[in-house]
Amino acid sequence: MDPQTQIELEAAAFRTLKAHLQKRTDVQNIDMMNLTGFCRNCLSRWYQEAAAERGIEIGKMEAREEFYGMPFDEWKAKYQTDASAEKQAAFEVAHKDAT
Known about the structure:
By secondary structure, the chain is mostly helical. It is 71% helix and 0% strand.
């Protein structure tokens, strides 16, 4: 496969992931972090970092809107739920070495 085709396929898969996460508002970031080690906020940060590497300035909230499909505060108000003590404890265990 030539490099340009690979880039296009990877970009298409990434767009599909982004759209999938925007539809799955029932999936909380803490669930993603506990299972995969990354969440929507991570994806938006990686997007922001990739833009910065290319000299493109994108704000944190603008980058988050790319992955939430709406302003972050709006998503939080509509879909974010409080994490249970069990989920918080699992997060602490899973990410104890990250700090």
